[in-house]
Amino acid sequence: MPVIEITIHGRGGQGGVTLAKLIATAYFLLGKYVQAFGVYAAERTGAPLQAFVRIDDDEIINHNQIRTPDHVVVLD
């Protein structure tokens, strides 16, 4: 399986980073290598945020933000 990259867009307090961690945990329990992290503009409720998830069969060595995701989740 090639690397799967997911970007989640939302606002602080909507659970975007939590969603990224839940997706990563589910795939980790299936034996995959995963990465989940968020980027915050400001740590407050309502501030824009992005969260990223990478899933792969091999160890993930890329730690950059995802520019061309395979899937996009928008929370509103």
In short:
This protein is an alpha+beta fold. The chain contains 1 helix and 4 strands. About 20% of the residues lie in helices and about 40% in strands.
Regions with little confidence, pLDDT below 50 for 5+ residues: none
Tally the helices: 1
Overall structural class, as computed from helix and strand content, comes to alpha+beta
Bin the strand percentage.
Answer: 35-45%
Strand order of the largest sheet: 2-3-1-4
Quick one: how many beta strands? 4
How far do the termini sit from each other? 31 Å
Reported for the largest beta sheet, the result is: 4 strands, mixed
Rounded mean pLDDT score? 92
Fraction of residues in helix: 10-25%
What is the H/E order? EHEEE
What is the overall silhouette?
A: elongated
Rg estimate, integer Å: 12 Å
